[in-house]
Design brief:
- This protein is α/β, with parallel strands linked by helices.
- It has one domain: Glycosidases (TIM Barrel).
- The protein has 15 helices and 14 strands.
- An eight-stranded parallel beta barrel has the order 1-2-3-4-5-7-11-12, surrounded by four helices.
- The longest helix has 26 residues.
- The protein starts with 6 loop residues before the first strand and ends in a 7-residue tail after the last helix.
């Protein structure tokens, strides 16, 4: 595949599609401990321990959509769509079941070898996320996950194994999925539960620091092992708008944007922003930053910036009497100028152009939009068809904005991998009913169903869109 070809594809995460959570030598991960139901959010936010749930709760990730046994069928459907890229993650605990092993699990490596070969057979570029909300339980038990500096070496071992095994096959790597989610859902993002006697912000920013050092170290390793490949960071993106022109609201939005782009500042520029260091000092937050860490961060910035975009956010200094039910982990208030999805997310295609310009202006590195889509309830008609015009409308408006932003603003975008080509378990709520795919999977919120795959109307629309697309890379 030519390097200058714009990549059209879909995206997923191992813990949301693979299932087979005890097969192939795989160990448990943090998401395997995240139940469906009323306790899910409290555990995800690190406010409740995963053991504090009834014995009969349902864990959606354990079976998911059984991609582990359906991957050849599913990849063939991606190829028929005309997709030229597939972004997926590798399950850390398939490679190192507890995280503590010296040698990797060969059966796990063979699964991904076979999967990547299947993609390449159809000329589909594999884009691999090393860690997508995925921490082996063994590392949580042994060192409290990313609360510990030990995790840097464990991640280094894991990433190095992947780079050596898949050298020449994988040209695009992403170190951590939506790394900023650790601010909002530390258990989901990093396998962390915060004890009542701990300083929440200190725990989170310390863990974030260790993740960013690990990310920079992985960047260094890839350049040593496979200099032809590229590696990027990833953010759950969306600018915060001020609710009004009141300077207090403008300042609230500015602060929220600083906090959100904190991770990209370090991974793309190589150093901590001054506001963050001032904040730590003011609040008495002690971060374990060594001179060696500073050197690693400075010398190993990423090749590209990847990001997810579903909606923009809005900030207001005084939220009394204002609707704050945005449905989004990143918070904010409801923007009265925008439509909302069934789950309360703001629908804002223009916000995609805004955030693409924001990221490019800040970092001047190529961009990669690796998640964008609409969660909605789909209905299977008596004849087996699924008419998801609402999804087509959402995707079309955002893809039109991509084309405009590339052509008129000159923003270099490597590709677009929508979330998701196929229905999967929702990360936030654990539902199957919150569907994102172009391909329907017969499975419900309770894990019942045949796992039969059905093409939606959006499948045929996306296929035609890719065939006719004139989107190209910007030099």
């Amino acid at each position: 595949m030519p390097k200058d070809k714009f990549l059209w594809g879909g995206a997923s995460a191992a813990n949301q599609v693979e299932g087979a959570y005890k097969e192939g030598g795989r160990g448990l991960s943090n998401i395997d401990l995240l139940p469906f139901g009323e306790d899910r959010i409290a555990i995800a936010q690190g406010r409740k321990h995963y053991t504090e749930v009834p014995d009969d709760v349902f864990y959606p990730s354990h079976e998911a959509i059984d991609f582990y046994h359906h991957y050849k069928e599913d990849i063939a459907l991606l190829a028929e769509l005309g997709m030229t890229a597939y972004r997926f993650s590798i399950s850390w605990s398939r490679i190192y079941p507890t995280g503590l092993e010296t040698d990797p699990n060969e059966e796990g490596l063979q699964f991904y070898d076979s999967m990547i070969d299947e993609l390449l057979k159809y000329n589909i570029e594999p884009i691999v996320t090393i860690c997508h909300f995925d921490v082996p339980k063994g590392l949580m038990d042994e060192c409290n996950s990313w609360k510990s500096r030990q995790m840097i070496d464990q991640y280094d071992k894991y990433a190095t194994t992947l780079f050596k095994r898949f050298k020449g096959k994988v040209k695009y790597w992403i170190t951590f999925n939506e790394i900023n989610m650790i601010l909002h859902k530390p258990f989901t993002g990093a396998g962390i539960t915060i004890n009542k006697d701990e300083n929440r912000e200190e725990v989170i920013y310390t863990a974030a620091h260790y993740e960013m050092v690990a990310s920079a170290l992985a960047t260094k390793r890839l350049r040593e092992i496979d200099s032809d490949a590229q590696i990027g960071c990833m953010l759950a993106a969306g600018d915060y708008y001020p609710y009004s022109s009141d300077p207090e609201d403008v300042r609230a939005a500015q602060v929220a944007n600083q906090e959100n782009f904190f991770f990209l500042d370090i991974q793309s520029r190589g150093e901590y922003p001054r506001w963050a260091l001032n904040k730590f000092e003011k609040l008495g937050i002690q971060i374990d930053i060594t001179e060696e860490d500073r050197s690693i961060l400075r010398d190993n910035t990423v090749d590209f910036v990847s990001f997810s975009y579903y909606s923009s956010r809005t900030s207001k200094e005084n939220t009394e009497g204002v609707d704050t039910n945005t449905g989004n982990a990143a918070g904010g208030v409801v923007n009265p100028y925008l439509e909302r999805s069934e789950w309360g997310w703001m629908i804002d295609p223009t916000g995609l152009r805004i955030v693409m310009n924001t990221i490019w202006d800040r970092y001047q590195k190529p961009l990669f939009l690796v998640e964008n889509g609409l969660g909605a309830r789909d209905v299977v008609e008596e004849d087996g068809s699924i008419h998801d015009d609402y999804r087509i409308d959402y995707l079309k408006k955002h893809i039109d904005v991509i084309e405009t932003t590339i052509k008129e603003d000159g923003i270099p975008l490597l590709g677009y991998t929508m979330w998701s080509a196929i229905d999967l378990v929702s990360s936030s709520g654990g539902q199957m009913s919150k569907r994102y795919g172009l391909i329907y999977v017969d499975r419900d919120d309770n894990g019942e169903g045949t796992n039969h795959r059905i093409k939606k109307d959006s499948y045929y629309w996306f296929k035609e869109m890719v065939e006719k697309s004139s989107v190209a890379l910007v030099d």
